[in-house]
Design a protein that fits this description.
Two copies of one chain form a homodimer. Chain A has 14 helices and 16 strands. Chain A is an alpha/beta fold. The first copy, chain A, folds into three domains: 71 residues, Arc Repressor Mutant, subunit A, CATH 1.10.10; 144 residues, ATPase, nucleotide binding domain (Nucleotidyltransferase, domain 5); 158 residues, ATPase, nucleotide binding domain (Nucleotidyltransferase, domain 5, 2-Layer Sandwich). In chain A, a hairpin with a 6-residue loop joins β8 and β9. The two termini of chain A are 42 Å apart. Chains A and B meet through β13 and α10 of A and β13 and α10 of B.
Chain lengths: 407, 407
Amino acid sequence: MVLAREAAARPDAIRRHNLGLLLGEIHRDGELTRAELTQRLALSRSTVGALVADLTALGLVVERVPTGGVRAGRPSHVVGPRDDGPYAIAVDVDVTRVASAAVGLGGRVLARHGSLAAGQPPTPRQVAEQIAQAVHALDDLVCPGSWPVGIGVSVPGTVSSRNDVVEFAPNLNWHGEPLGAILADTVPNGLPVRLGNDADLAVTAERLRGAGRGSDDIVFLMGRVGVGAGIVANGRPLSGHHGHAGEVGHNVVDPSGPRCHCGKRGCVETYIGEKALLKLANRRRPPTSENVAALFADAHRGDPQAAVAVRAVAKALGHTIASLVNVLNSERVILGGSLASVFDFATAEVSSAVSEYAMTEGHAAVQLRTPGLGSDSPLLGAAELVFADLLADPLATRASAESLIRP
Amino acid sequence: MVLAREAAARPDAIRRHNLGLLLGEIHRDGELTRAELTQRLALSRSTVGALVADLTALGLVVERVPTGGVRAGRPSHVVGPRDDGPYAIAVDVDVTRVASAAVGLGGRVLARHGSLAAGQPPTPRQVAEQIAQAVHALDDLVCPGSWPVGIGVSVPGTVSSRNDVVEFAPNLNWHGEPLGAILADTVPNGLPVRLGNDADLAVTAERLRGAGRGSDDIVFLMGRVGVGAGIVANGRPLSGHHGHAGEVGHNVVDPSGPRCHCGKRGCVETYIGEKALLKLANRRRPPTSENVAALFADAHRGDPQAAVAVRAVAKALGHTIASLVNVLNSERVILGGSLASVFDFATAEVSSAVSEYAMTEGHAAVQLRTPGLGSDSPLLGAAELVFADLLADPLATRASAESLIRP
């Protein structure tokens, strides 16, 4: 339960705070009755009524009588997000595709923009142009009256603590790219832009609404072309001193292992990344999501070369998980990207390698999970970057959004 | 600055809280003037005066006129710990020795009890007996009138979250040993007992008064016979879901590496632990502190076999540090136990291996340090386990201590 504050000393600041809290409850858990809101916020019924009226007037929520079910007495109205309310433009940049979506309050995907596969990793300017196109395309797809409140971008690399520069995205070959500034120039109406690391955003989204619910010690291990971890420890994101925590992909696990594009040998990525998987299956194809999906489909159909490759990755994945869990003693590890498919196909191999390499004496083994949000975890985490601003101050965000709406 | 509370609703609870805060300031920073205490606690002068009078009556602090220095006006009295005040019995259990000390408020070592080297790793009962002897010996060594408030024990293994069972101490060959209960039976006057992992306690002590001051993202990498890490992230101890975080010693860094006593091959410990160091120097001796110290002395004197061994450990140490920092993005790594001597002898080799293996693009390299508290970090961290109870409620601890004092 989140305790709200009754209006007293600074009524305006308290009202903004409480509006954010109430909207946050609806954002996290969906439709709630006024009675539930009153209980959760520990405020008076009349205060909650006034807050709901404010949020309704701001176009953020709508009250309705629930349909279905027969209950005695006067039905309690439920308060939920509006279909034509605010939305986040969420973008998931990966090496072979840029996927975008309009995400409404409550984490609902309202519309998607077709992802674009490129032969080469995209440049920051190409990504910015694709996002600009997505902003327009999504605006046409959402309900009339909806308005965008910002752009959240997930990138497969480390992001500056100011959330605007991609410090290092090795598989995109980006080094210190000011993607935030480039986007601010490219996107027509000056929407606020926030960047985040894909695994960090994925663990945020999964903890809010997916396989991380209820745990305070989680690792989201993201495997795409590159490999990275998003960490929650003690119930808080572990971002590290410069915001670069979780860069496990270039930890060397065997100094005589395969050569990595980073210059070292035997990096985690050369064992469990998508390129490694394709190479182990002897497939000389680019690591697009289609090629990777085809490999897993073949493994499930009984293709021995594909199956052997997935099992080899599974074993190395178990070793990687164990090394992380030995350091972090996480309760739960969520496997994302192609690692989810590895785990689905070769659960026993992953679990057995975890047991082999992990120190588990005196406590239960770590829980292994696939994402509750499917492949959308980084995308929905990127939306949360935008919603964080909205929830911090619903009044300010609406005011600034109004100045952005096209004439 | 720590904001204290002016007495209002529950005067007794607030008084206890404020007594703890004031005592905590003196514990952390030593002697302070009443003016400094008034400013730090943001309380009135009269309230601080009353709190100081309370702590003086409890025998916890003493006020005195500072000697030396000539200043105009009335000298401000300083408040500091009493020489004959409370002390913690701090114990540092390692594979080849059990070192004990009486530690006063402010982290001052008041007396030490000779450590005992054993041919075999001690059993829990042997450790308990040595601690019982230390309790008596230290009582004879401290100022008359001093009184013990509890026993804090550092162990080279994982400790249950209830702080009373050693779950797993591989180099002691302990598995699920109820050392807390054994000690409670063995120690004559029923002093409260708290256990902690050596590296976890070391990082606590170093952050309070040593090389970790001022940083919120620290790893203390402890190298003795075993290897473990104590982690502070976001300014808080990272203990993990079961309290077992930091068990990096059995992470496998080369599956074709040397066989480890844990059954695996190529564990971190087989590269940078004290047994590994002695073996690399071709010395078939037990890993006592004397034998390890002799090896470093020989390396400094130019013994080529010793120097080569230390340099080999230095390189592996750099790799271990980099793998930890890639995951945690710590600001500072403190090297303890024999790893401090490795770093002192082969600083360049350690730093160069860290650079080779760490992802540092876009941010400064990690800061490498040796402990500010020398080899006492785990011992002083163990004392903090005891002081935590005292600072939480100075009134209760004194009351219970009085019931424990021998008739």
